[in-house]
Design a protein that fits this description.
Length: about 290
């Protein structure tokens, strides 16, 4: 890039606009107006191993629930939908995105088209717009791992923002270790957001602790959030409706709270996480 500096293109009306407006235009073209995108690896359509981009257009939980309710919905039916909803990986508004990313030709029109034509327009547009393309949300752990495994090194160095959902019970330690290693190596990663679902197995109380240990290998992001779902759920069988279930958040700017409280978490298990975070991450949170 330095060998061929971008022409400033002062004659172009586009570059007379404020940069913020150009940002909106790039988001409109590259992400269908969304702020970020979902990346999925397809196993069937259009071809196995094909990567697809879909706009991230979350709909608020309440809006989604309202959509599910019609006059003939029985209260039992609604109950079971809310239960599914509370346990679903796409909660927090991403049901809408899930539709767009379905492995189904009918949803193809919602997928994002190639960014290449815009990038070929001119060097200055490329330089300005390319960071918009390097912000991802992975709905499946496997997608994140495959993407990071096969992306070219130059592309990996551009990645700024990664969000990833992880279901602990479906995950092998070796894969998690690999993913953490690959995330730790992203030189430009500024924001990392991980949602962990400990699942329903007997050892779901122990596993997140092991995970946090591996996740603490990732040191670079300035903003690093880990949401552990269901930590505050009580012992009873029933789930709280999504709007009342608060996922627990580990948050940091520089250091994860669980590094300080690790001994405590290891000794007492996952139930100690809320206390540890209260103790160690509160001052940092006030700072923000
Ligand atoms: Zn989304």
């Amino acid at each position: 890039m330095s060998k061929f500096p971008a022409d400033e293109q002062f004659q172009s009306p586009l570059f007379k606009l404020p940069p913020e407006v150009r940002d909106l235009i790039y988001c409109r073209i590259l992400l269908n107006g969304a702020k970020t995108q979902h990346i999925r690896v397809y196993y069937r359509y259009p071809a196995p191993g094909c990567l697809q981009r879909g706009p991230c257009s979350p709909i608020a939980d309440e809006e989604f629930i309202k959509e599910q309710i019609s006059s003939d919905t029985s209260s039992e039916e609604l109950d079971s939908r809310l239960t599914d909803y509370a346990r679903d990986p796409y909660r927090n508004g991403h049901f809408n995105c899930q539709q767009i990313l379905k492995d189904d030709p009918r949803f193809q029109e919602y997928q994002l088209s190639s960014a290449v034509p815009l990038f070929l327009t001119c060097r200055k547009i490329y330089r300005e717009a390319v960071p918009k393309l390097y912000s991802f949300r992975f709905n499946y752990f496997a997608d994140a791992l495959l993407f990071l495994r096969y992306a070219r090194l130059a592309e990996l160095d551009r990645i700024r923002n990664v969000e990833c959902f992880m279901e602990i019970e479906y995950l092998a330690d070796v894969d998690l270790r690999e993913l953490c290693g690959r995330l730790a190596n992203l030189t430009s990663l500024q924001r990392l957001h991980i949602v962990m679902d400990p699942g329903q197995k007997e050892d779901s109380n122990v596993l997140p602790v092991k995970w946090l240990d591996m996740l603490s290998l990732i040191k670079r992001p300035e903003r690093y959030e880990v949401h552990v779902l269901g930590l505050e759920a009580d012992e009873s069988e029933s789930y709280e409706p999504a709007s009342e279930q608060r996922p627990f958040v580990l948050w940091r700017k520089r250091e994860p709270a669980w590094i300080y409280g690790q001994a405590e978490i290891l000794a007492k298990g996952v139930k100690a996480i809320p206390d540890v975070c209260k103790m160690y991450s509160q001052p940092v949170m006030k700072d923000d």
